[in-house]
Design brief:
The strands form three sheets. Strands 1, 2, 3, 6, 10 and 11 form a six-stranded mixed β-sheet that branches. The protein has a three-stranded antiparallel β-sheet with strand order 8-7-9. Strands 4-5 form a two-stranded antiparallel ribbon. Helix content is 42%, strand content 13%. The chain is an alpha/beta fold and 411 residues long. The termini are far apart. Helix 1 packs parallel to helix 2, helix 1 runs antiparallel to helix 13 and helix 15 runs antiparallel to helix 16.
Amino acid sequence: MNKKIVGAVACVSAALLAFFAVTGCSGKNKTQGSSSSDSGQKEITLTVWESLSGPDEFIKQAGEAYTKLHPNVKINFVNVELGDASGQIALDGPAGVGPDLFAAPHDKLGELVAGGHVKPTVNPSKVKSEVLGACSSALTYDGTMYGYPVSAETYALFYNKALISEADVPTTWEGLSTWVKDFNKNNPGKRGFVMDVGNAYYTIIFTTKDGNRLFGPSGTDTVNTNLNNAPAVEGMKFFQSLRPMLNVPAADLQTSTADEAFKAGTAAMHITGLWNVVPFEEAGIDFGVAALPALPGETTPSASFSGTRAMFVSEYSDYPEEAAAFAEFLISPEMQQLRFNLTGAMPSINTTVSSKYMPGFLKQLDYAFPMPSIPAMGQFWEAMNNASKNIWDGADVQTELDACNNAILGK
């Protein structure tokens, strides 16, 4: 972490301690996140699952701050990565060794609800009034809200200012392809553009022409994936046509590979999210963030997935009330500012954070749509990942998308 970030965190932490000293000295003056777990009651420990590389430090610091308000409540961080939590809770929860609270992406909500693994949000009306509308919508399933959104996210186009000027950043995919081919020819050892071409999180953008959306406009169509219809096929054929500008097999274009290329200063443009702001800054890259290029025939940025990272109260928790109170505490303005300072993640509430990169993400967010959260999303990732890889490597587009559609719908 660079000195500026460390300094910012220190300042925020100091301010928080002062704030808590004033507001938390009496059990009668409860602040947001307070519960029946106040001074004089039984000491409890809440186990919280979260990821490393920033979110872990956030939970630890937020836990320390919360314990100052509620001395009988201790927070125990356990590393379970975001992508593993929904599968692990199904095993550890019933076995009695799971968490009280765990982080998971909102697209796992249907799976978690169907499995009976999470409790509904406490005070949903209050929580909805405090968070971004996109976040509350993402966490609502069959009319019931679950979880507490701790960050919002989407991805955008990062560009290295040493390799491409802001004025030259393409606003269309055709323009990007042309620019990249010229750049590659004139800059041996460097690439004009990199992305994880086998990751459905990113490749979904090529299926969204003419308002086409995964599982329909509301993301709840369990009959049609909209991944093998005419707009999707046309879009993925265009995706395949981009191969000459980045003539690398899908197996060699994973997220880590693309990240490292941009971090090393050998890639001019890259599609990624706010989570990479701090690593790229620490690597000394002078970069900017712009909205995604428009698809052929369109004039607005490509539609990206938007995601909500949430903390869910486990159905198996012995302390669901206290877990819910801590989760709500995490969406307070002070904690959202702390999370931004530590992770660079977009706040889940309407609050102002200081970042020169935020305008690019906010512009892209205007064209993003929430990842569906129906149970079928559990089959989407592997199926669309495989289809994307195969299409990039030259397979027949219609055949791959038909197979993807059938795998998701269990045909």
